[in-house]
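Lab notebook, bench 4. Still working through the backlog of constructs that have no structural model yet. Next entry is a single chain of 66 residues. Request: give me the structure tokens for it.
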Amino acid sequence: MDDFQNILENGITFKSAPKEKHDDGKVKTKAKKKKYITGAHGSGSARQKAKYREQRANRRSQHRQK
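Model written out:
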């Protein structure tokens, strides 16, 4: 009867189940996928961004050689 009285006074608290943490090794964001970075998936925007990334990488590598 003590549990019943406690429930009446305080109510019932529901908690969510703990979420399982599983790492399947997949990349979850488009920005990190190889085809998206290189612009190979056909999007004009991705190709443009890939071009800028390549130019920036070239500038950085040239800067390091000096």
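Notes after review: The mean pLDDT is 76. The two ends are 82 Å apart (CA to CA). Flag for follow-up if needed.
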